[in-house]
Design a protein that fits this description.
Blueprint (H helix, E strand, L loop, with lengths): L11 E6 L23 H22 L2 E6 L16 E3 L4 E4 L5 H4 L4 H9 L7 E4 L12 H4 L1 E3 L4 E5 L6 H11 L2 E5 L12 H4 E3 L3 E4 L7 H13 L3 E4 L2 H5 L6 E4 L5 E6 H6 L2 H8 L3 E5 L2 H7 L8 E2 L12
Parallel strand pairs: 1-2, 4-5, 7-8, 10-11, 13-14
Antiparallel strand pairs: 1-15, 3-4, 6-7, 9-10, 12-13
Length: about 325
C-alpha cells in the first residue's frame, strides 16, 4: 500500500524529448484541443524540440531535478512528449502503468525508462502495478491525465470520458488506497473534456479548477467541497482559460524546498491579476512558451511532466 504520508509535491520530473512529434490523428476524435497548427510533421517536430528544451532549461534553472530521456525513432510515437499518461511514480516505490485509448500511444510504455531511473538515477522501485490489461476490454485510464491526485489526502479526482473509465478507476483506487471523486465535465460545446488535468490542478494548499465545466451541480459542489475540506484555496477558471491550458499547471517543490508552479506562457497570460496574485502567494510561477506543442497535440506543461515521487535508493523505507 502506498504511504498515506506521501508528499503532494515532487522535486524531480521525467521528461521525454520527442523524436517524431506531430498532431496524432488517433487522438483527434476525443481531444478537441489539438490539431490547431497548420504545419508539416517535420516543422512540428522542430518547433517542439525548441519548446521542449526551453521548458526543461527553465525548470532546471528554477531548481527542479529534470530527468530527460530521448524518445526513439521507432516505433513512431507522436505523443511521447506526454509521459504522465502511461506512467506514474509513488512515494513508496510503486510504479503504475496505465491503459491507453490510442493504439499508437501504447508503444510509449518503455520498461527501459523504469530501469534507467533505478540504475542511472538511483531511484528505488519496489513494485510495478500494471493496469494495461484493461485495454483488452476497451477500458482506459490515462495516468495523471485522467487522474488528478491529492496524494496527501488520498483523493483521486477524475472526469469521465472515453479515456477515463469508472471500472479502471476502481481498480486503481483499490490497489493504491485512494478515494475516487468522479464527475462529468464538458467544454463550451457540451463535449466531454478528454483529460481531468486540462480542467484542474491540485497542489499542496492551492487548487485551480474550471468548475463551470463540471456538468452537474451536485458534482460541482462535491468537488469544491472536497478541495476546501482538504485545506485548499480554490482559484476558479473560466472555460476560456481552460482552453488556454490554465488548468494544466503543476505545483512542484525545488530541491531547496521552495514551491513553484509550472505552466505555459499562454496559460499564464490568460490569468487575471487576482488569480496570479493567489498563485504568487503560494510559489513562483515558472513558464515557457510551448504554443506549437499545445496547438498540435492539445496538451500543455503539466502533461509533459511525470512527477518522480520515488524514494532514492539510499532512502528506502518500510511502509
Amino acid at each position: 500500500m502506498t504511504s498515506a504520508t506521501e508528499s503532494q509535491l515532487a522535486s524531480a520530473v521525467l521528461m521525454i524529448r520527442p523524436a517524431r512529434f506531430h498532431s496524432n490523428p488517433l487522438t483527434a476524435a476525443s481531444n478537441r484541443f489539438q490539431g490547431k497548427l497548420d504545419a508539416s510533421e517535420a516543422q512540428q517536430q522542430a518547433a517542439a524540440l525548441r519548446e521542449f528544451d526551453r521548458l526543461a532549461e527553465a525548470l532546471v534553472t528554477a531548481g527542479i531535478h529534470v530527468v530527460v530521456i530521448d524518445d526513439t525513432m521507432e516505433p513512431p510515437t507522436p505523443d511521447s512528449i506526454f509521459p504522465n499518461n502511461w506512467i506514474s511514480f509513488h512515494g513508496d516505490g510503486t510504479v503504475v502503468l496505465y491503459p491507453m485509448e490510442a493504439a499508437n500511444r501504447r508503444t510509449e510504455r518503455r520498461p527501459d525508462i523504469i530501469d534507467s531511473l533505478a540504475r542511472e538515477h538511483a531511484f528505488h522501485v519496489s513494485r510495478i502495478i500494471d493496469l494495461t490489461a484493461h485495454e483488452q476490454h476497451g477500458q482506459y485510464l490515462e495516468g495523471t491525465g485522467s487522474l488528478v491526485l491529492d496524494r496527501t489526502h488520498r483523493v483521486a479526482y477524475a472526469c469521465l470520458s472515453s479515456r477515463t473509465d469508472l471500472d479502471v478507476l476502481g481498480d486503481f483506487a483499490q490497489q493504491l488506497d485512494y478515494e475516487v471523486m468522479a464527475f462529468d465535465a464538458v467544454d463550451r460545446d457540451g463535449i466531454p473534456v478528454y483529460h481531468t488535468n486540462v480542467l484542474m490542478s491540485v497542489g499542496e494548499s492551492l487548487a485551480v479548477i474550471c468548475d463551470e465545466s463540471i456538468a452537474r451541480d451536485e458534482q460541482r459542489e462535491a468537488v469544491l467541497r472536497s478541495l476546501r475540506d482538504t485545506g485548499h484555496d480554490v482559484v476558479s477558471l473560466t472555460c476560456e482559460q481552460m482552453e488556454a491550458f490554465a488548468g494544466n499547471m503543476l505545483e512542484l517543490r525545488t530541491e531547496s524546498g521552495s514551491r513553484l508552479f509550472a505552466m505555459s506562457v499562454r496559460a499564464r497570460r490568460s490569468l487575471t491579476d487576482d488569480q496570479l496574485a493567489m498563485i504568487d502567494a503560494k510559489g513562483e510561477i515558472v513558464s515557457a512558451p510551448i504554443d506549437c506543442i499545445e496547438d498540435s497535440s492539445g496538451g500543455s506543461v503539466r502533461c509533459m511532466l511525470a512527477e518522480i515521487h520515488l524514494p532514492k535508493a539510499s532512502e528506502q523505507r518500510t511502509v
